[in-house]
Design a protein that fits this description.
Layout: H1 2-34, H2 43-60, H3 63-73, H4 80-86, H5 98-109, E1 117-120, E2 126-127, E3 131-138, E4 143-149, H6 153-174, H7 182-195, H8 198-211, E5 218-219, E6 232-236, E7 241-242, H9 246-251, H10 256-274, E8 276-278, E9 286-288, E10 294-296, E11 302-304, H11 309-322, H12 325-335, E12 338-339, H13 345-356, H14 369-381, E13 384-386, H15 389-407, H16 414-422
Length: 423
């Protein structure tokens, strides 16, 4: 049975890759034969390709969903039409049937469910690409959220990653100017190695909780390690208002602008001061409590930044604020950017485009969605060979925070947040 499953997944991934490849290549070959010019706008093709990928991902689940989520974060590589469609992967994941989940939890904990939990709700609170979360109660009545990794997901991961590497190798062999996809598969492999180990996730949650231990404004759920394994994570059940529910936030007597600025302060402290951060701040992982405390959830994708990264990022922002072009170039290089011909002027073109989308023509501490979109558009269109994955993750964080701020009708100022973090 497992052999048939692997064969089916391999054929489905290969067929999807062929459909997407031919979607672009057949019209291009026809235009070349008829000597017609290339169209200026390929948005319709991009959207169709993304929907093909999304359909396969929702059918196969697992790594294919994760791959689409990685693509959706790489606005520096893929066009906006693709990003917009594949963003749905964060919200459209169907749960697995409870009997499979129950058997998996019992096997992991080594005992029947009713010997550990007084209650365990069959319907999950949330479902993602690798796991789903159930509300439960221990025998003593302690409420928990139990994150359960899907059965056989590790085998599926190995199968799908091998298939993706083969597809990328074939694609790069046949296409004279291939889009570099193998680095994305490598990035995905690195992410999955982190996210499949729930004990590591518990360690990351403890680390962030310790960072804000004296803060009083950040809530990170406590981990119940006695009922946790690499594949099952039992944690404190923490409630709150979803970070994008503006009316509920206001009804609780909170100012959405203050919530936005507090959220930016928290992430600025993690990224610039601590060099370690929760790298997936989408609205399903962020809540605010009526007293204003911000709840952080899901530390599977937590990232340790290289030494000096925070300083380099600060130098980049400060140089953009002061319009110091030599400092901009130095900051890009210190962050690990490289260009095809070694010409640093490319970095200036990227920065100028980004700052044109600000109200004043310079960076004043506010990362708007327009500015971050423009940054990634400029990177994608210029001959940048290497965009450090750490920068992409941090850029994605600021973009997501900007989107949350926009939903709440506000803006978040990084420089003010830095002052609040150190003050």
């Amino acid at each position: 049975m497992r052999l048939l499953v692997r064969l089916y997944r391999s054929l489905r991934i290969a067929a999807t890759a062929a459909r997407v490849y031919l979607l672009y290549k057949l019209p291009a070959w026809g235009r070349r034969l008829l000597r017609r010019p290339e169209p200026e706008d390929l948005d319709a093709s991009h959207e169709r390709a993304a929907r093909i990928l999304l359909g396969t991902a929702l059918s196969l689940r697992g790594v294919t969903i994760k791959f689409c989520q990685v693509v959706a974060t790489r606005a520096d590589v893929f066009p906006p039409a693709v990003i917009e469609v594949l963003k749905q992967c964060h919200d459209a994941v169907p749960p697995q049937p409870f009997p499979r989940i129950r058997a998996h939890v019992e096997a992991e904990l080594g005992r029947p469910l009713d010997q550990v939990f007084r209650a365990f709700e069959p319907e999950p609170m949330a479902a993602a690409s690798l796991a789903q979360v159930h509300r439960a109660e221990l025998l003593d009545g302690t409420p928990l959220a139990v994150k359960v990794q899907y059965p056989d997901i590790e085998q599926i991961v190995r199968t799908d990653l091998a298939n993706m590497r083969r597809v990328c190798a074939v694609y790069e062999f046949f296409d004279p100017q291939p889009l570099e996809l193998r680095p994305l598969v490598k990035e995905l492999t690195n992410h999955l190695a982190l996210e499949l180990d729930f004990l590591r996730e518990a360690d990351c949650a403890d680390r962030v909780r310790e960072l804000f231990a004296r803060d009083g404004t950040v809530v990170v759920p406590e981990m119940h390690r006695e009922w946790s394994t690499r594949r099952v994570l039992s944690m404190q059940l923490v409630d709150g208002i979803k970070i994008t529910e503006k009316e509920k936030i206001q009804a609780a007597g909170l100012d959405p602008a203050d919530v936005v600025q507090e959220l930016m302060r928290i992430y600025t402290r993690m990224i610039l001061a601590a060099g370690f951060f929760q790298a997936d701040p989408h609205p399903g992982n962020l809540f605010v409590q009526p007293d204003g405390q911000v709840v952080l959830l899901d530390f599977g994708l937590s990232k340790e930044l290289p030494e000096g990264f925070g300083l380099g990022l600060f130098e980049l922002m400060f140089s953009m604020m002061t319009l110091n072009e030599s400092a901009m170039i130095r900051a890009f290089q210190e962050l690990g950017f490289e260009t095809k011909n070694g010409d640093p002027s490319t970095f200036l073109l990227i920065t100028r485009r980004m700052m044109k989308r600000s109200d004043t023509g310079r960076f004043e501490g506010e990362f708007t969605e327009q500015m971050t979109d423009e940054l990634f558009d400029a990177i994608r269109e210029n001959p940048v060979v290497q965009v450090p994955s750490d920068f992409v993750l941090v850029g994605r964080v600021f973009s997501l925070l900007s989107g949350i701020a926009h939903t709440l009708g506000s803006r978040a100022n990084v420089l003010e947040a830095m002052g609040a973090s150190t003050g």
